[in-house]
Amino acid sequence: MEVVVVISILVVVLSITFYFFPKLNKKEVLEKDVSSVVALIRNARVLSVASKNTSPFGIHFENNKVVLFEGSAYVAGNDNEKIVTLSKDVYMSNYLLNLGSPDVVFSRLIGHTSNYGTVTFSLKDDSASTTITILGTGVIQ
Question: Which domains does the chain have, with CATH numbers?
Answer without folding.
Answer: 2-134 (3.55.40.10)
